[in-house]
Every structure is written in C-alpha cells, then in structure tokens.
Amino acid sequence: MAFWVQMAFLLVNIITSVVRGKVEKELSPECREFLYMETPPSGLEHHAVQFICQRYNKKARYVTLYNTVDHIPIYSAYTFKRSDGEKCVDVPWMYEPQLSTLSDTDEMQPFPRAYMHMNFEDTQAVLDDYTNAILYERGTLNPDEHQDEPDDKASTYTLTNVVPMVPDFNNIVWNKQEHIVRKRLNNYCRGRAYIVTGITTSGKMIRRENMNRVAVPTYLWSAYCCIHYDHNAPFNERYKFPSFAHYGLNEEENNEVKICQRYEDKARYVTLYDPQNHIPIYSAYTFKKSDGEKKVDFPWMFEPQLASEKSSSNMEPFPQSSNMHMNFEDSQAVLDDYADVVQYERGQLNPDEHQADPLDKASTYTLTNKSCREGCSLSQSVTVPQTRVEFDVWEKKNALNLLRTSVTNTALHSHIDNSIRNLLSINAVLRSLNIQEYTPPASAAGLEGTWTASSATDLLQVHVNFLRGKVRLLLLDAQACQQDVS
Q1: Rounded to an integer, what distance in angstroms lies between the CA atom of residue 178 and that of residue 263?
Q2: Mean pLDDT value across residues 16-41
Q3: What is the largest CA-CA distance in the chain?
Q4: Given pLDDT bands bounded at 50, 70 and 90, which one contains residue 396?
Q5: Residue 390: pLDDT band by 50, 70, 90 thresholds?
Q6: Contact partners, residue 231, CB within 8 Å, separation at least 6
C-alpha cells in the first residue's frame, strides 16, 4: 500500500510543465499561488481540458483542471487552511460562467431557477445530471472542511469541483481521510500546505436523455506537500511529512467478512470470506510441522457466524436433514452445492496436512475454507514480458482478456473483473506519465526476459510486478518536494 501511496504523490508532482487551456492560457500569478512551486502537474494535456481559476466574491480561491467533454474535474489544487472542520450550510450549488458561450463574469454563479437548455451545459455538468443518478452523490475535490473563511468554504460548492461518488465510499472512506488529513495538517504543518486532489476514469458515465453526461471516477487520489512541519511530531505522523498521499476505489463497500475460524472454543486460523459468491478469498494460518497425514472420517462443517440466527462462534457440522432451507445457506456454500458438480472437488485453502494437532486438522474441514481445485487455471499458458519493456508489449499479449475467459469458476468472475479493472486503471495512469523505457545494453540485444503464467494467480501477480517495476523506474528520477528539510 505504501508503495502505491508514493506513486499517487508522484502523479501530481514529479514531472512538471504548463498545461494550457482556453479559460486561462497562462495561469495568473494569483492562481499559481495554489500550486506547489507555482507549477501545475504534467502528463494531463488534452484538447478537452481547461484550467479554471475558481473565483468567488472577487477573489481567486483555488485552481481546477476541467474536462469539458466528460464534464468532470481532473483535479482541484488548493492551499489548506486550518479549520475546525465545520461544513458550509445553505450555500447554493454553482456553475462556471467561464465555460459558458455567453459570459459576462469570471466568477462562479448560482444555477438559474427556471429550467431551460442553458448556454453552459454543453461544457459542464448541471444539477439535472445528478437528479436521477441514484447510485451516486456529489463529492467535492476541494472539500469545504479544508477551508476556514466562509467565502473559501462557499467557493467549493461549484459543480466544476464535484465528481460523482458512491455514497458508501464518500461517507465511510473518503470523508474519513479528509478528516484525518485536516487534523494532521492542523497539528503538525507549520507553513503552507499544498493539496492536489484528482481522479482517474475508465469509461463509466452518468447518462441523461440517452446521452453521456458525466464521467464516473474509478479512483480518487489526493496528495499534499508541507515543507515546514513539526520535527518533534510522533513518528507515526512525522513520516507523513513533507509529503504524503492516499487513494481510494470509488465503489460500494464490499461484503467480504473476516472469520475467526474457531473450533472447540479455540481460534485456529483466519479467513476472508465473500458471502455473496460463497467462496473464501484467503485463509491465513500458522504452519505446524506434521507428517502430512490427512484427517479421515470427519464431517464437513458450516460457519454459524454467517447465519441469520447466530447460535455459536464455533464451526459446526452440517445438519443431517437436507430437505429444508437452512438459515445460513444464503451467505455461504452448503453441501448440496457440490452434490452434482462432477468436474470439481472440495479443496482447502488451509490444508489439514499443514497442521499437526488433530483438532487443528479437523478445523480445516469447513466449507468457508474451501475454494476451487479446478477451474482456476488458464486455457493455455501465457508467456509475458518482465518489467523493463514497453507497455505495448504487454498489451499485445492480450493476457488479461485470456484470464477472464479461461477461468470457468463463475464465483471468481467478479473478483477477477475487479482485479483487471484496477490494473488497467493504474496502467493508464502510468502510461500518461510517458515514462522513459529501459534500453538494454548491446550485449543483451535480442533477449527479452519473460515469465510463463499458467494460472490466474500467476498472471495477476506478474502483471502487478510489471506495474510495480514501472513505478520503481519512476521513483528513480523523482524530484518531488525534495528540499532540505532535515
């Protein structure tokens, strides 16, 4: 996680150049002051993006890079103000006249009350775009709780500072991180703190009247830089200076649950379980030296902790009667699920031969510790490149698409889809930074390091290593926030 946190900060500070837009071809000095070293992030140049110097009540408040085609901000850059975290109330949502075809002001304005096709809705989001978007709510990139003055708080309520967020993610995850950052900077930043908060997208859109209107972020990221900070701060806070970042996946909180696998009133191991797909994600256990013998004549068990009527915290054998709907089969696999499935067998993530004590062995015989023994392999092995090659080489292999079609266990499809989507999103961000590719020495000409992947696990791990290596190359040339702060 820390590795990707460093990457998120690099996205906004490593390599810099001026991004030119129609709203402001050159950012004015009063707007550059919101950017570290008065320099915008680079790698985001596109004909559809424009700078907005967000002005309210005759004063510049922060800077936004806005996509006029997807009707969404790419990022908002602002300076943090110490505050008590109170939110602004009774402030109307506003639009940006600078993006209008007919504009007589450069300050954000409240939306008109009467409905009409407004002369600015072709280039930016409007309130109607969110009216029926019940899966999302408006989340601000520059949050009002990071500002102190009432006018600074009010200026965050413009749709050019808003992205669609999944409610659970916004309220449970992202708002919590904003609060943590506010408290940290309040307590330990002794100078000006610069914050850039932005998004990545992958094609999902909010539609209105059969038209794509607003892009939905896949990830949100945020990075700050505070050069002058309290060097006597506790270590768990001090290491997050002078710069730090975080990111989050804009999705509903999953339903995966951690099960402390208990048998005979003793904890034996831990399982992360997906009650929707009735399959464990992993089981974590301590290995015990053993002779490898398997437990015999022991009944398969279920997990009462996942039952609608919890009777015990210990795993229990399945009831003898199978002619009723048991109060736990909606949230976990049951024996009947395997009765007619001849191509699969029950395989344990924590195998009994890795345990020595008979009770530890017995505890592995629960279906919440069972995963696929077949159906996880690829239809054909894939030879994939190592880290220091071009992105195109990876993509020509079409390996990730093969992964989705090869794995026959449908219970795993949602997890594979999430993994592929996450990898592709990170891949797109890294490509946008135009990382210089590795050039091998002449002695290595014609050689290409490869791995052979024959399973879903192997292929996902190799691709993660590939992206991790790309970030490492990026870190070698990082110049972000590197001033003498010792």
Answers
A1: 41
A2: 69
A3: 83
A4: low
A5: low
A6: 238
The residue type of 402 is L
The pLDDT assigned to 460 comes to 65
Residue among 181, 169, 255, 180 nearest 218 (CA): 169
Q: Does 162 have pLDDT greater than 90?
A: yes
170, 162 contact by CB (below 8 A): no
Dihedral over Cα of 333, 334, 337, 338: its sign: positive
- Summarize pLDDT for 38-85 with one digit per residue, the tens: 998 887 777 888 899 999 999 999 999 999 999 999 999 999 999 998
Q: Cα 454 from chain centroid?
A: 27
Per DSSP, 475 falls in state H
C-alpha span between 393 and 411 (Å, rounded): 31
Residue bearing tokens 């995850």: 173
Residue 206 in contact with residue 129, Cβ under 8 Å? yes
Q: Where are the alpha helices (DSSP H) in 169-268?
A: 175-188, 235-238
For the cut 80, the answer to whether the pLDDT of residue 431 exceeds it is no
First to last CA, the chain: 25
User: What pLDDT, on a 0 to 100 scale, did the predictor assign at position 165?
Assistant: 95
What is the distance between the alpha carbons of residues 347 and 203, in angstroms, rounded to a whole number?
38
**AA letter at 221:** W
- Least confident segment among 222-231, 289-298, 386-395: 386-395
Q: Who has greater pLDDT, 396 or 250? A: 250
- Nearest CA-CA partner of 37 in 430, 478, 483, 485: 483
Is the distance from CB of 273 to CB of 306 less than 8 angstroms?
Answer: yes
Q: Which stretch of 255-264, 311-320, 335-344, 373-382 has the lowest confidence by average pLDDT? A: 373-382
- Point out which residues pair with 214 in neighbouring strands: 206
Residues 6+ apart with CB under 8 A from 52: 21, 23, 24, 63, 64, 65, 66, 96, 98, 99, 160
Closest Cα to residue 328, out of 338, 315, 346, 340? 315
Which numeric CATH code is attached to 2-249? 3.40.570.10
Smallest CA-to-CA distance from 150 within 67, 59, 281 is with 59
Contact call for residues 92 and 63 (beta carbons, < 8 A): no
CATH code 3.40.570.10 region(s) in the chain: 2-249
**Cβ pair 64, 94 in contact under 8 A:** no
Residues 14, 43: contact at Cβ < 8 Å? Answer: no
Distance CA 299, CA 318 (A): 8
Q: What's the confidence (pLDDT) of residue 78? A: 97
Strand 59-67 versus strand 72-79 pairing type: antiparallel
The CB density around residue 58, as the number of other CB atoms within 10 Å, is 8
Both tokens of 222, joined, read 């945020």
- In total, the chain counts a number of residues equal to 486
Distance from C-alpha of 370 to C-alpha of 378, rounded to nearest angstrom: 20
